[in-house]
Design brief:
The chain is of the alpha/beta class. Helix content is 49%, strand content 13%. The protein has helices spanning 4-9, 30-39, 42-46, 49-63, 76-80, 115-127, 141-150, 158-166, 168-192, 209-230, 247-253, 267-273, 286-291, 293-306, 326-338; strands at 67-69, 84-88, 92-96, 133-139, 196-201, 236-240, 258-260, 280-284, 312-316. α12 links the parallel β7 and β8. α4 (49-63) packs parallel to α6 (115-127), α6 (115-127) packs parallel to α9 and α9 runs parallel beside α10 (209-230). The chain is globular and about 60 Å long. The chain starts with a helix and ends with a helix. The model has no long low-confidence stretch (mean pLDDT 97). The protein binds coproporphyrinogen III. Coproporphyrinogen III binds at residues 22-27, 36, 42, 69, 71-75, 87, 92-93, 137, 139, 153, 200, 202, 319. Residues 22-27, 36, 42, 69, 71-75, 87, 92-93, 137, 139, 153, 200, 202, 319 line the site of coproporphyrinogen III (CP3).
Amino acid sequence: MPGLLLDTLHGSNVDQRPIWLMRQAGRYLPEYRALRAQKGGFLPLVYDSAAAAEITLQPIRRFGFDGAILFSDILIVPYAMGQNLEFLVGEGPRLSPRLLDTALTSLHAVPERLTPIYETVRQVKAGLGGSRTLLGFAGSPWTVATYMVAGEGSRDQHDTRALAYRDSGAFQAIIDAIAGVTIEYLLGQIAAGAEAVQLFDSWAGSLAPAEFERWVIAPNAAIVKALHARAPQVPVIGFPKGAGEKLRAYAAETGVDAVGLDETIDPAWAARTLPTGLPVQGNLDPLLLLAGGDELGRQALHVLDCFAGRPHVFNLGHGIGQTTPLEHVEQLIGVVRGWRPR
Ligand code: CP3
């Protein structure tokens, strides 16, 4: 039984609206906070496959979402490429040594750091009902590179953009290395049971047009091509956050099967501009879900109406906020499930 989400990503369902939310497994759920407190941190959770599978399934049990996204992180790839990874409470992730002052070739890859993730995928698959879709994911090379180069998150990806201009050959080698590991990692998730995969390019929005072509479109196209060659039945969702009008080129040139839209994209513009029949995903502002009320219902219906006649997966424009009230999530699901094309 393929299910509503998979049918939509394949373009064969245009009438009903599946829903899942980015970051749906996480801190807004009391059951997540309880398990996290017990395991003592984020990485210990990710590396305990039974716990990670349980966390992946928590939002499905509570809300019945159409898709379950693997509980892991995009920074597992740099960790497997040989950087040290820590999540500092209140400060976010740290990778060391950073590639701003260390050569890529001095890292020693640790591919075993990917294997527990495949075990998580297998355990989720075993616990998931037949009509719900299991989503794997990875970061896109540009976004992952910004963390590998700077060693941490940054406001405008300054160090990485500067490196890409200063030494584009060295930076190309970093992008190619990440892309290579990402292809194997996603194929590993697919072999373990992932039925669709999403590429998160959270910092795509900071690049000038020519750089967007080189560091976003080209490596994502290479990943999609390799996945389509080796796993042709598995749809790839590309999410180039902040791409704005560059989405048009992204959709035309990467070969992704569906495009994720952030909340800054006008859904009416996307509906007119993106290729007819291309499945889209998004794009309610996560802050509306925090606020709740009539405005949440109105704007969710606006997104739904804009994409009538096109395959559409309902989602937020970015991850769900950690203080989001659970009743607002229930309210949103009611609106989406109650919607019918006019
Ligand atoms: O969507 C899901 O529910 C699946 C799991 C998932 C996580 N991170 C879990 C997580 C996914 C898909 C991600 C993607 C991710 N990770 C991205 C791309 C999407 C985006 O949000 O832009 C990025 C940039 C990261 C890197 C990352 N991981 C940061 C910057 C942080 C710290 C900020 C924060 O929210 O705490 C993380 C930690 C992280 N990844 C948490 C979760 C649930 C919080 C961990 C905790 O403290 O419990």
